[in-house]
Amino acid sequence: MRSTSAMCLTMPSRDRLEGGTANLRARCHGIVAATEYFGGEIQDAQTRFREALDVLEGLSDADRDRVIQATILANLGCVAETKHDWAAAEQHHREALRLRRKIADARGVLQSLHALGRARLGAGDRDDAERHFTEAGQLADSLGETLERAKIWHTRAELLLADGDATRARELATGALETFTQSRTRYDITHARVTLSRAARASGQEPLAIQQGALARSAVQVMGYGLLCVLYPADVFDLAGRIDGALTAYACGDALGVPWESNPGANVRATASQIEQLPAREGWARGATSDDTALTLLVARHLADRDGDGDPAAFLADLAAQEPAIRGLGPTTTAAIERFRRGDNTVGSRGRATNGAAMRALPIGWVLPHDQAKRRRQVTIAMSRATHADPAAVVAACVIAACGSWALEGASPAMLLAAAAEEAREAAQAVTTEARLADLLGQVSAGTWEPPVGGISLDPYDTVAAALWCATRATSLRNGLVSAVQLGGDTDTVAALAGGLIGCGLTAGQARAELPWHQLVIPPEPEAEIAETAAALATSRAIQSI
Asked: What are the φ/ψ torsions at residue 525 (nearest 5 degrees)?
């Protein structure tokens, strides 16, 4: 039997118990702060890290957990780096390094050396930064720390990119990404994809840039890595905000074109100032949008509710229910609604090929990632045939959906036209028709396409060519919309589609800021509801991308 005195010797003191509780509390503060930090809540993270440090500094040296203390100091250094407070970053990282050396934490020393190099680089001392990077790299090799070595490669890739050596930066970022992927460190994978995307774009490899950037943006949205949005706002943009901007620009283009639709010659002679006055069309309210916006929003909600999968019968049911409130429906769509109400499930006769399916196809591209071409094409064909059976109408819709998907990822005009031509060929083959639209788009790309003198007809191929001609030549959203209206003919559809494509690079607020007359536009839904639909589409797209 143990004596009472022996038991007393093995029991921790009250101070030690309180110290353990305090250390645990500091660690919990640190975990929450790290979550806030990686989520992009920089100031909140800094406050919570400081609270954790205050708890630790209130303990005696004997009771303080120095591993936790060093970690908190290192994290405060990272926060300071994010805020470009290089003096504070260096101070925190040096103190963390001192502690880690004292407790013989070799891996921690490696991490602090790397961090000190970043801080010295930010402060402008390139030579000292290189010295720290080299020392950290040597330690990583000696410890067999492949993950930490890859993080140093990643930092060097960013440095090379800043120096203008995009090719070497791309090589290092690729190597780092491979190691991160093997280690399954998700944040590092996402961060490396951002760097690789930037390096690829700088070295003229736009397809790779778009591929990696799209994967990174989707991961940021799904995993909540808001820190990367703070660090790279031009590259890690909000997909929901861009879709909202595209829908806003689409509605504005529609409203701008409504007064001039099928008004031969008048719009060609009209100045930009006259067009932007949004004169009221006879029988329409000033600033009204047409069936173009109403049907595009209907498709957007339909797809958002189904994670990008279209249900033609359900879409027709919704369309039939809303038909009385939609102004300007074309004869092909109206006929499809009547067939649905009669219970006739057969697809309508081909009849005249019109642009009704293409006009509402952008949301299919916004919800389905750019690299899921086959699925996007299948959904577009099914949704198009619900109302428009003609092969030309279907091919045109497939091209618009593809362009919407690529434009959302920031494709350049040249890349957008290349993607459009490729989709035109693939879609034509899928529905067994000629590849005439691909030829037209080749003319747009070569700069030899000329708008018809009589304006843009309802022909789906002419509409697509005109919309892309406007979108890829525009110097601004405002310029693109006015140019679309000045083409004449089906002005609301061409301007809406051009606006939807150009708007993929803007937020709703930015789109409105470019258009001084936006207050006159009367969308069929409140702005808040449109933003909710955009967010749902973006979430679905992101989930399907990773």
From this structure: -135, 155
- Phi, psi (deg, nearest 5) at residue 456: -85, 125
- Distance between CA atoms of 64 and 26, rounded to whole angstroms? 10
The whole-angstrom separation of Cα 380 and Cα 399 is: 9
Look at residue 327 and give its three-state secondary structure. coil
> Which pLDDT value is given to residue 14?
45
Element (H, E) at 139: helix 126-143
Q: Which residues of 228-265 are buried (b: 16+ CB within 10 A; e: fewer)?
A: bbbebeebbbbbbbbbbbbbbbbbbbbbbbbbbbebee
Q: Is residue 488 left, alpha or beta, with left meaning phi > 0 and alpha meaning psi from -120 to 50?
A: left
Alpha carbon distance 179, 189 (integer Å): 9
Element (H, E) at 281: none
Q: What is the pLDDT of residue 7?
A: 37
Q: Under 8 Å CB-to-CB from 185, ≥6 apart: which residues?
A: 147
* Largest Cα–Cα separation, the chain: 108
Q: Among residues 345, 431, 417, which one has the least CA distance to residue 381?
A: 431
Q: Which two tokens stand for residue 45?
A: 């993270």
Q: What is the CA radius of gyration of the chain?
A: 29
User: Position 143: which residue type?
Assistant: L
- Both structure tokens of 458: 């309802």
Task: State the pLDDT at residue 4.
Answer: 37
Torsion, Cα 219 222 225 229, to 10 degrees, reads: 80
Q: Phi and psi for 448 in degrees, rounded to 5?
A: -105, -5
Q: Which residues of 45-60 are buried (b: 16+ CB within 10 A; e: fewer)?
A: bbebbebbbebbeebe
pLDDT at residue number 266 = 52
Rounded average pLDDT per 10-residue block, the chain, 546 residues: 36 50 94 96 97 94 94 98 97 98 96 97 96 97 97 97 96 98 97 98 97 97 96 96 98 97 65 94 95 98 95 96 93 93 71 90 97 97 96 98 98 98 98 96 97 93 98 98 96 98 98 97 96 97 91
pLDDT of residue 74: 97
Side-chain half-sphere exposure of 142, counting CA atoms within 13 A: 10
The pLDDT of residue 267 is 55
DSSP string spanning 469-487? HHHHH-SSHHHHHHHHHHT
CA dist., res. 462 & res. 476, Å (int): 22
Q: How far apart are CA 220 and CA 227, in angstroms?
A: 9
Residue 522: strand, helix, or coil: strand
Q: What is the DSSP letter of 231?
A: H
Give the Cα separation of 394 and 378 in Å (integer).
Answer: 11
3-state secondary structure of 288: strand
CA distance 400 to 378: 14
The CA distance from 420 to 463, in Å, is: 13
Strand-pairing partners, residue 7, are: none
The number of C-alpha atoms within 13 Å of 217 and in the hemisphere containing its C-beta is: 28
How many Å apart are CA 132 and CA 113, to the nearest integer? 6
d(CA 474, CA 494): 13
